[in-house]
Amino acid sequence: MTLSVIIPVYRVEATLDRCVESVLRQHVDDMEVILVDDGSPDRCPEMCDNWAIKDQRIHVIHKQNGGLSDARNAGIDIACGDYITFVDSDDWIADNTYPPLIDQMGDIDILEYAIADRLSLQEHIYNDINEYWLSERVYTHTYAWNKLYRRLLFDSVRYPKGRIFEDVYTLPQLLRKAQKVATTSHGSYHYWINPSGITATANGQALAQLLEAHLSSKMPVDDLYYMYLANIQIDVWERNRNDIILPKRRINHTTLPNKHKLKAIVINTLGLKKLCVISKFIHYFKKPSRIV
Predict the structure, then answer these.
(1) Continuous H helices in 121-217
(2) Does 283 have pLDDT greater than 60?
(3) Are the beta carbons of 213 and 163 closer than 8 angstroms?
(4) Sign (positive/negative) of CA torsion 217, 220, 225, 231?
(5) Average pLDDT of the chain?
(6) pTM of the full predicted structure?
(7) For 36-40, 197-201, 257-261, which range has the lowest pLDDT when averaged over its residues?
(8) Which of 61, 85, 130, 280 is deepest in the core (most CB within 10 A)?
(9) What are the φ and ψ backbone dihedral angles of 260, each rounded to 5 degrees?
């Protein structure tokens, strides 16, 4: 078995067929598609079973609701492919995405491909995982789904159950086990923006988990990554008023893009907490006036 495609399924009646059809159109015969019904309360369990009847490559797991991580883990537990990839059930894959990716894998452990209208990538092979993390700014796109993974990487790694932004916890663990990773311009993952999804509706607690995930990743941090983390810290502070947990750092603002330079200067001169206060003040006065 070459490829295992794991698709968690929960409350996606409107998009499930489009997702599954896009995967089956990939012309990969040596492939299994694992539909994980995560206790969905609608017609999704029946739809999954119907797909299994139509195509022998499809396997279905029915389980009690445990969340996205738990559903992915259930799929990983039974996956037989040499490689694993994930698709969220409200998304879809462009035609002829998987075959050229499989051909490229060779001795590559993780291969990342493009996200339509969101992320463009070029052909590059990295033997230095830290270089990949920083030069590609992978910390901004740690998503599980636009990557192919050698299945052996998951022998001792699973997604953390009950955590929001679970990808940020998991990808660094996989990268630390990888010897070689690559990016490619081949293929395209189509991400559907869900206005009621976790990312769009993240509250202060969720954003605090996101920041903690980054800080616990043990991945290298350069000045640009630090400014990305500083922006998350500002959002967390505005919502929660917790203590600042991002460690202090002296930033070389001259090397940063212009949009980050002023913030970096403020951090260097006044500190991160002062920047949080200033940002809140600016955001307050940017709010549209209420008409009374």
Answers:
(1) 129-135, 166-177, 204-215
(2) no
(3) yes
(4) positive
(5) 93
(6) 0.92
(7) 197-201
(8) 85
(9) -105, -15
User: By the 8 A CB rule, do 198 and 206 touch?
Assistant: yes
What is the structure's pLDDT at 198? 59
Give yes or no for a contact between 79 and 4, defined as CB atoms under 8 angstroms apart: yes
Residue type, 204: G
Residue 151 has φ and ψ, to the nearest 5°, of -60, -30
- Average pLDDT in the 164-179 region? 97
- Give me the pLDDT at residue 28, please: 95
- Helix ranges (H only) for 79-219 are 98-105, 129-135, 166-177, 204-215
Instruction: Return the exposure string of 33-55: e unless at least 16 CB atoms fall within 10 Å of the residue's CB, then b.
Output: bbbbbbbbeeebbebbeebeeee
User: Longest Cα pair distance anywhere in the chain, in angstroms?
Assistant: 65
Tokens at 278, concatenated: 């200033």
Q: Which amino acid, one-letter code, is at 252?
A: N
Contacts of 97 (CB under 8 A, 6+ apart): 26, 113, 186, 187, 188, 189
Confidence of residue 158 (pLDDT cuts 50, 70, 90): very high
* Sequence-separated (6 or more) residues with CB below 8 Å from residue 187: 93, 94, 96, 97, 98, 100, 101, 113, 114
Instruction: Answer whether 33's CB lies under 8 Å from 112's CB.
Output: no
Alpha-carbon separation of residue 204 from 193, 199, 227 (angstroms):
20, 12, 19
